[in-house]
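Milestone M4 deliverable, item 7.
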Amino acid sequence: MCGISGVYAPGRAPIDPEVVRRINRALRHRGPDDEGYHSDPQAQVILGHRRLSVIDLATGHQPIFNESGTVAVVFNGEIYNFLELRNELTAKGYRFRTNSDTEVIANLYDHAGADCVHRLRGMFAIAIWDERRQELVLIRDRLGKKPIYYAETPGGFYFASEIQPLAEIPGLSREIDERAIDLYLTYSCIPSPWSIYRAIRKLPPAHLLRVRGSEVSLERYWQPSFEPKLSLDYEEAKGELLKLFTESVRLRMISDVPLGVFLSGGVDSSAVAAVMSTLSPGPIKTFSIGFPDPRYNELAHARVVARHYRTEHHEWMVEPQALDVLPEIVRTYGEPYGDSSAIPTWYLSRLARSQVTVALNGDGGDELFGGYPWHRVIPALNRMAAFAVPSLMRGIASLSILPRRARTLAELLSMTETQRVQRLRSYLFEPGRQRLYHRDFRERVNGSADRYLEQVYDSGSLDRYDRVFKMDLLSYLPEDLLVKVDRASMAHGLECRSPLLDHVLLEFACRLPAGWKIRRGRSKHIFKEAVKSLFPSGFLDRPKMGFSVPIGEWFKSEWKPWVSATLLDGPLSRRSILDRRELQAILAEHNSGGRSHETLIWNLAMLSLWFEQFGQG
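Output delivered:
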């Protein structure tokens, strides 16, 4: 895994190479083993690379070129089918100087142009300088596992793997994009293409960006397809699913450095650990995180798997003192990020890096096979709403004598399908947003966050379950979960690989009938049945716990003084974003136990820390 950066400035003043070097060196944590540059003064382009050595330790230095030297590539990620592609290219007459997957990309691009992306099986953020076409090409993998930020400036087009190194660009405006703050408080993250700065954007997943002269073009090259459904019976599909999953794990075990697996104790990471153990000639290394509060602690389940497969098991207990690491986490993410599971992911990455350089994980199982509660709730409500009269539901929702849950249900049934999904997948919504936002801020953002998910959610012809699965694959997974893992792991020089997010496996899973995924209330049914033989009887049939943190309790106890000081006296108190009285009321209601606001409080606290860390206080 690596960090990439660069600039293309045709027809501008000469590029200062020291600027690119500063950007590149700010990515050292992503690639502590090596750095490299390609500079073409005549074309006004510089590419930079920081390397974490995983494959081809001896000859994998980047940038790497095609055979004729006309294509230069810097690359962050892994291509798992690179040997197959290399053999194909060799048969076509291409010669290779290294054993790296990056050289395969260079020659594959030489052969097929940007369409080469359709042949790549893996995770990637790629920058290609095409000398013959005088064109810079940026490509991000299908699900957005690897990031690319970019900025179009008067001095040229800059890009980098993370946002804060781009602050090294001379004269770059650091004006805050207030729409991004609205998005962040609504979804706990800032989805692409937005960033916290108006001048910087993210390349969205599954997109390709070309810069040629003064022209910049953006195109989507892939998206998940749920139709037509596969013409297999259930048993055939279950067998093929296990075969594809096993192959995906096997491909991700290819490494020239030590590797292990994140083992939460849940179904997905346990399945990855189980298959790794069956494929490995010796004991694998497993890494788990726990909490003192038993409601959040899955260590006992992780130990069952570790004992069953006799792994070399390592654990870490996260205590409330985790408060000490928050400033470092904020610096790592570079822009406001509100998923509190960033804390255990940070500690888990640090624990794993003490023993290995590569770690597999179970990310993606919930999105593919219906593992989240809303995968059942949203379709059920949509079915109920088909028989509801909206005006009647609005009347019921206004009856204060009814319990809150009854009024909320009636309100949801009065909405359109898109409005209902927006409400259920937001952490901040009306009328709470109306009360919390300062009047001036509310007028400036004008509900922009709601429109994001309305555009992502497809209420058209798909099955009512597939609509929700697709929404998560296009939003929650790439914009929240994969960001969390990339930044936390790369902060420690650890490469994370996600077998369940192999695009071949994913495309197969998308075309399975939804009724095989959620059956009689049982989530991930077909996946659990496919891997059932790998575990002791009954291990897979228990309630989902999730990778969550007891922050709600910490806010009422150990962290209470810190929360009050951070939100009421910190940088947010000096900006016209929030209504102070409403914020005080939210804190009081949470602390009294009247209603939990833990996600909103956490998001606000991390926003305040971001302003403090990056000089915007």
